[in-house]
Design goal:
The model has no long low-confidence stretch (mean pLDDT 83). The chain has one domain. It is mainly α and 311 residues long.
Length: 311
């Protein structure tokens, strides 16, 4: 691997600029970032991680301009039942499979909440609550990241293969893909309605971070500062503003367009974090646990949606 930081930075700059053009799609941006990281490394890994989190938050808030607040409230209320059931089943399966794959306890918990709620955000919130070690956090994040990358390619393909409607696909992506960024990236390829449904349902599910982190901290006697994804509040505020002033939809369209392009750039930055060290940190047992939970969540939610139990 070429470890010249100047070449790596030049490649990252070129890739980032390319992502601002309309010719680069979400999965292509992610693959570009991964290619840069694996070929040249990432001399600014910590900085790109910080920027990717910031840009993701801003992008999601911007996407709120295109959402109807009434729809958000309706989806959030309608999804309480199946969200609770899905969360409970995922956590139960995680504890059973963690023993089978000999996964360390904290790592298993973090992968479970990441799968059941919203990937990295849930892991970041629950980790301090259970006093998880840095290694456990790294392994869980690495596992979730790899599966997020796969979801961007696999989910749209399966959706088209099964001739799912945009609404059905948005629901499925929100219930079975880990991170908000990958949900938005996958649904963005599928259509506007899929994007709106997926983002809304995913952000409604993300609200479960707070009670789950508190309960996890109580059960496992963890101490630490709880984190809350503040961008959820920004998303709701943006949606509320433009829902209240429908006559300025032209401004909302501009904000949404910028947010979508910023999201593509974010996925590129996330891809540059997939270094060789990240791949090694995933661990065989933890990765198998992550894949097993992901497959269970994906197939279970797909069956429920296609059968009409979730709509």
């Amino acid at each position: 691997m070429n470890k010249n930081p100047n070449i790596a930075l030049a490649a990252m700059a070129a890739g980032g600029i390319a992502c601002l053009t309309p010719f680069i799609t979400s999965p292509v941006a992610l693959l570009m970032g991964m290619g840069v990281a694996l070929a040249f490394g990432n001399p600014e890994e910590e900085r790109t991680k910080r920027f990717s989190k910031l840009f993701l938050s801003i992008a999601v808030i911007g996407l709120g301009a295109g959402m109807d607040l009434g729809v958000i409230a309706k989806v959030g209320a309608a999804g309480v039942g199946y969200t609770f059931i899905g969360l409970s089943l995922t956590l139960a399966a995680a504890f059973a499979l963690a023993k089978l794959f000999k996964t360390e306890r904290d790592t298993g918990i973090l992968i479970a909440v990441g799968t059941a709620i919203c990937g990295g955000s849930a892991i970041a919130a629950v980790a301090p609550a259970i006093d998880a070690k840095a290694k456990s956090i790294s392994v869980a994040m690495g596992t979730v990241f790899l599966l997020n990358a796969a979801a961007l390619v696999v989910f749209p393909f399966i959706g088209h293969l099964l001739q799912m409607t945009e609404h059905q696909f948005g629901l499925w992506a929100a219930l079975a893909i880990h991170d908000t960024s990958s949900v938005v990236g996958a649904t963005l390829q599928y259509g506007t309605e899929a994007l709106q449904t997926g983002t809304t349902v995913k952000l409604a599910r993300a609200l479960w971070i707070l009670p789950v982190s508190l309960v996890a901290g109580y059960i496992f006697a963890g101490r630490g500062k709880r984190k809350f994804p503040w961008f959820i509040l920004g998303f709701i505020a943006m949606a509320a503003f433009f829902s209240s002033f429908p006559n300025i939809h032209f401004a909302a369209d501009i904000i949404v367009a910028i947010a979508k392009r910023l999201l593509v750039l974010t996925l590129f930055l996330i891809g540059t974090s997939l270094t060789r060290d990240t791949l090694k940190s995933a661990g065989a047992g933890a990765f198998l646990l992550g894949v097993a939970l992901w497959v269970l969540a994906a197939t279970g939610s797909l069956w429920a949606i296609m059968a009409g139990y979730i709509h």
